[in-house]
Amino acid sequence: MDGFHRLLDLEPIEVNLFRGTNPPPEWLVIAKRVFGGQVLAQALVAAQRTVEDIAAHSMHAYFILAGDPQVPIVYEVERVRDGRSFATRRVVAVQHGRPIFIMSVSFHRGEPGFEHSFALPEGVPAPEDIPPMAERGAALARLPERVRAYWTRVRPIELRPVHLDRPPEGTGAGGRQYIWFRTVGPVPDVPELHRAMLAYTSDMTLLETTLIEHGTSVFNDEILAASLDHALWLHRPFRIDDWLLYAQDSPAAGSGRGLARGLIHDRAGRIVASVAQEGLIRLAR
């Protein structure tokens, strides 16, 4: 958790300009590029540093180039608008003099109004009824080595997938998976930090959902996979150090791209966030 906090504690280097560091190598999903969730979270932190007393409610981002994990990332924030109810920021992440990522963030001052939410999906067990990774030896043993390494990797987020061996094997999961998650340690009562950590986590496992229907995985050497864009909406307060359920599905794929969606529920069943992402899922040439 100390490393997670350092990752999200950007260095201010000028007005509207921030610098973010990269995590240790063992955190990296793919050693040669920065994890997309890191850039999402750091960009959100940069945008949050330029507003006061107003909360982020939606983010829309495009991944332009793969990030270099060997050098810091510079985030430039444009203060597009400051209104009475809403504020807008545009963030550009730069490495080697080139934009690698752009994101628009909208902020809203909370107000009373209509509320509704889908319930938890039926048949999904509680997180306490799902063994932690350290106790799932038999299921892990059936996985390909690279997939097993992903699930057992050192990270600040604990993942408890409901069906551990189903997505990689493609046994009729129907392009759908459910994963409980939370941070491995407590998080201070700073809502901006919880939002940034959720943005980080929202990019985990989502692209994998687009390949479940096809019986393969992003860890297959014959698949070239990468996130192209990412949208995140925050609906109500939550704590990321308590269990949240990430219900993911993939309604469509075509032309070398796959669409994945996610609903993030709290323990009470309420949807606290919604996610959508399109990714490249190309057969390697």
TrEMBL record:
Span of domain Acyl-CoA thioesterase 2 C-terminal: 155-280
Gene3D superfamilies: Acyl-CoA thioesterase, double hotdog domain (2.40.160.210)
SUPFAM superfamilies: Thioesterase/thiol ester dehydrase-isomerase
Keyword Hydrolase in annotation: yes
Pfam family, one: Acyl_CoA_thio
InterPro entries to which the protein is assigned, alphabetical: Acyl-CoA_hotdog, Acyl_CoA_thio, HotDog_dom_sf, TesB_ACOT8-like_N, TesB_C
Keyword Hydrolase (UniProt): yes
Residues annotated as domain Acyl-CoA thioesterase-like N-terminal HotDog: 24-108
Alphabetical keyword list: Hydrolase
Domain of life: Bacteria
Family, as annotated: Belongs to the C/M/P thioester hydrolase family.
Protein name, entry field: Acyl-CoA thioesterase II
